[in-house]
Write a structure and sequence with these properties.
Elements: H1 14-24, E1 30-31, H2 32-39, H3 43-52, H4 63-79, H5 89-92, E2 95-96, H6 98-111, H7 113-118, H8 130-146, H9 153-168, H10 171-210
Antiparallel strand pairs: 1-2
Protein name: Exopolysaccharide biosynthesis protein
Organism: Brevundimonas vitisensis
Pfam family, one: ExoD
């Protein structure tokens, strides 16, 4: 009998999803294709969450610049309405080790339980349909700021809230993540404008005294 891997149960939390991957993996782990298929339409949210978790470390440099590209690729596909993530065939064939899946499951159980306890299906109109595309746009906005040196933690929080919101069908988390993404982008823009205007003022003052 053939088992259909596309059996997404929205009542199953994201921690249980990660644990189920580790439990289902054989000694050689799982290919990315198998992981994608088991996660079904929530693969977008969970894959982005997994990529965002390391970027929660304050003042991290290097990792955000690396994971930013696949996050943008995944969010871009959500934005145009793809039902499951597309990845090149060579990438889909790559295996994720059993040890790595076990570590991810352990991290999810020990460190992310409070996310799951606080999130639940609510305000569904913010977490499905057109709202998924809107969430993807906010993910792109957050990712464009996550790659800036020393500014990774706040946009990573936005990505985490957005991802968990989509996985758990929690519109409140999605709205919260969107607010953090917009607020952080606005704060960076304000600082950039202030620096630009301040530099222009200083240059004008210097010209006045030396001209």
């Amino acid at each position: 009998m053939t088992t259909d891997l596309h059996t997404d149960d929205h009542r199953q939390g994201f921690i249980a999803l990660v644990v189920s991957l580790a439990e289902a993996a054989g000694p050689d782990g799982m290919t990315l294709r198998e992981i994608r298929d088991r996660l079904d339409e929530r693969a977008f949210g969970l894959m982005i969450l997994i990529l965002a978790i390391p970027c929660l470390v304050p003042a991290l440099y290097g990792v955000p610049q690396i994971v930013g590209i696949p996050i943008l690729l995944l969010a871009g596909q959500m934005l145009v309405g793809r039902e499951e993530p597309w990845l090149p065939e060579a990438v889909l064939k790559r295996s994720v080790s059993k040890a790595w899946l076990d570590r991810m499951a352990e991290f999810a159980v020990k460190r992310m339980g409070w996310f799951e306890r606080l999130s639940r299906p609510r305000l569904a109109f913010f977490a499905q349909g057109w709202a998924e595309r809107a969430a993807a746009a906010f993910m792109i906005l957050a990712t464009l700021t996550i790659v800036l040196p020393m500014t990774n933690t706040v946009p990573s929080v936005a990505l985490t809230l957005l991802s968990v919101g989509l996985i758990q069908r929690d519109g409140l988390f999605v709205a919260g993540g969107a607010a953090v993404a917009v607020g952080w982008a606005a704060a960076l823009a304000t600082v950039a404008i202030g620096v630009f205007l301040g530099a222009g003022w200083a240059a004008g003052l210097l010209t006045h005294f030396t001209g």
